[in-house]
Amino acid sequence: MLKLGNKAPLFSLPDQTGNIHHLADSKGQWVLLYFYPKDDTPGCTKEACMIRDSWPEFKKLPVHVFGVSVDSVKKHAKFAEKYELPFTLLADEEKDIVKKYEVWGEKKFMGRVYQGINRVSYLIDPEGNIAKIYENVKPAEHAQQVLEDLKSLI
To answer: Which of 33, 42, 86, 126 is 20 to 30 A from 61, alpha carbon to alpha carbon?
Structure first.
């Protein structure tokens, strides 16, 4: 189980344009790694748009923002374009990273049980350690919560 202070699992994933991003490339920067279930669904769109709308504040801080789901690069490209998202969306189609970060698991919706991504975020410090874990993220509040935490940690 991932805990505060643990080294964040490394990753190399393609973004919405097909470029590969490595967590190791963010050494020396804070990283918000937010996991979300599916592109262009109500909660996921709300969360992404709240980060987008707070982007001027994020840009003032030394932080990289990565949204991660198991959707394809192509789906991420459409989602990012449709909502003019200024940050990076990573495609984990093989489900490697969602499993390493322990966000893949059982979910329930309208009486149906299935496997999917739980809405969890990790704030990773400049040394690559997990500084904060956000479980049961509320899409409408998440961006401001992260900004407040970053300002108190930096």
So the answer is: 42
Per-residue pLDDT of the chain (154 residues; tens, 9 = 90+): 789 999 999 999 999 999 999 999 999 999 999 999 999 999 999 999 999 999 999 999 999 999 999 999 999 999 999 999 999 999 999 999 999 999 999 888 788 898 999 999 999 999 999 999 999 899 999 999 999 999 999 8
Q: Any catalytic annotation for residue 44?
A: yes
pTM: 0.94
Secondary-structure class of domain 12-153 per CATH: alpha beta
Instruction: Outline where DSSP puts E strands in 9-140.
Output: 12-14, 20-22, 30-35, 63-69, 88-91, 104-109, 112-117, 121-124, 130-134
Domain ranges of the chain: 12-153
